[in-house]
Amino acid sequence: MDIALTFAAFYGMTFLLKDSSLLATPREALAQRMSWFAEMIQCSFCTGAHAGWMVYLLSGKEFEIRTVLLWMLASAAFSFAVDTWLLSLEGEDPKDEEQ
Among 52, 54, 95, 40, which Cα is nearest to 77's? Predict the structure, then answer.
């Protein structure tokens, strides 16, 4: 998996989990049942970390915990940066979104 595709997949998975209408119903149901999930799903950094391990598993690479952790950190940082940038372009305050 090349680097551009990997980083696109990081943000794509983060968006799918956090903001997509496709997963809105299960996301809302889980958020109502588990307060930690409700907080996690509002945070692009947190959701991005989970997206990282999911993309890693989808990549088909041999499992190495050290590499999984690095993908989680890369995905979290990239997803947060892209989400913050997009919120700024939309004229929203990114600090309001992360609370």
Answer: 52
